[in-house]
Write a structure and sequence with these properties.
By secondary structure, the chain is α/β, with parallel strands linked by helices. It has two domains: 1-81 and 115-227, P-loop containing nucleotide triphosphate hydrolases (Rossmann fold); 230-331, Helicase, Ruva Protein, domain 3, CATH 1.10.8. Helices cover 46% and strands 15% of the residues. The strands form four sheets. A five-stranded parallel β-sheet has the order 2-5-8-1-9. A two-stranded antiparallel sheet has the order 3-4. Strands 6-7 form a two-stranded antiparallel ribbon. Strand 3 (90-96) and strand 4 (103-109) form a beta hairpin. Helix 9 packs across helix 11, helix 11 packs across helix 12 (290-301) and helix 12 (290-301) runs antiparallel to helix 14 (318-328). 37% of the residues are buried. The model has no long low-confidence stretch (mean pLDDT 85).
Length: 331
């Protein structure tokens, strides 16, 4: 399948827009280029993200700033143990018309009715409330009292988790984590970046972010990502990576079998290809290669692997296992 001249010109347009977005974000965000690329790649193909990082790494600022650059509505939901599903999706409220005396129930939309929803510390709330958000992620709609209400388009969920504080939390089950396309880890900044962060954040803030893209442009760019052609060899490599995470599969290396109880499902294969397409598009390339799939392997696979007792006892992380798989599977 070949690309039209219009698609080629769109590629240049997307690449230029990405550079402009990064320039705007760097007015507030120091470094984090790889994280920004991952967020843009995930968003450009319609996936949702888990953001893993300790407090104070500007996760909320990054997401809210990106929403401004994309000219989209942004809502932040702080997840707590007492949060109820209706606090997220909305609820029926009884209204009374004082002139006629009639009463009726009206649906008042909750904060999930937004283009970008930041679910802050999603593992702080019980499974019942987590499920309300995850249903919206999958179906892009909310049902209340028998009526279904579509969510805005585009609709993007970014959920944060604190990896060091697990007391009083409700970890997302593996089946629910699978709804997230990416799990992005945000690490501490390096020395020079932290010095720059302290300098910027201890002075009055005067920066304003420009809206780079409209909703219509975003829709066009998303369609482009889905149309990008992929070589059969790249698809085979992505599927081989996903299958290599399944202990009972012949593709799984012997060194990995004892480290995993369960591996990634077919959704991982799909996301590996979509992510590789998105990486290619944001860099202005007409088609992805195996290196794009390798880059996508960590954010796509790390939250889909269930480690064995042996891996837990040896202190082997999911990142270590993904690295072993990438090294074992031939491109």
């Amino acid at each position: 399948m070949s690309q039209s001249h219009d698609d080629i010109s769109l590629l240049d347009e997307v690449s230029a827009a990405v550079q402009t977005i990064k320039k705007e974000l760097h007015k507030r965000i120091v470094g984090q280029d790889e994280v920004i690329d991952d967020l843009l790649a995930c968003f450009s193909c319609g996936g949702h993200c888990l953001l893993i990082g300790v407090p104070g790494l500007a996760k909320t600022m990054l997401v809210s700033s990106l929403a401004q650059c994309l000219h989209l509505q942004f809502n932040r939901i702080q997840f707590t143990p007492d949060l109820m599903p209706a606090d997220i999706t909305g609820s029926e409220i009884l209204f009374e018309d004082r002139t006629s005396g009639t009463r009726e129930f009206r649906f008042i939309k909750g904060p999930v009715f937004s283009n970008i929803v930041l679910a802050d510390e999603i593992n702080r709330t019980p499974p019942k409330t987590q499920s309300a958000l995850l249903q919206a992620m999958q179906e892009h709609e909310v049902t209340s009292s028998g009526c279904t209400y579509p969510l805005p388009s585009p609709f993007w969920v970014l959920a944060t988790q604190n990896p060091i504080e697990q007391e009083g939390t409700y970890p997302l089950p593996e089946a629910q984590q699978d709804r997230f396309m990416f799990s992005i880890e945000i690490d501490y900044p390096d020395l020079q970046s932290e010095i720059e962060i302290v300098k910027r954040t201890t002075l009055p803030r005067k920066d304003t972010l420009a809206a780079v893209l409209s909703a219509d442009q975003l829709s066009t760019y998303r369609d482009l990502v889905w149309r990008v052609p992929v070589a059969d060899s790249v698809v085979s490599y992505a599927v081989s990576l996903a299958r290599a995470t399944r202990p009972a599969d012949a593709f799984c290396p012997d060194t990995v079998k004892k480290l995993l109880t369960w591996g990634a499902g077919p959704r991982a294969s799909q996301f590996l290809i979509l992510a590789s397409k998105a990486y290619a598009v944001i860099q202005g390339r007409p088609t992805p290669d195996a290196n794009d799939v390798t880059r996508a392997a960590f954010p796509v696979l790390r939250h889909r692997l269930v480690k064995s007792f042996h891996a837990e006892a040896e202190g082997i992380s999911t990142n270590d296992i993904v690295k072993m798989i990438v090294e074992a599977v031939k491109k």
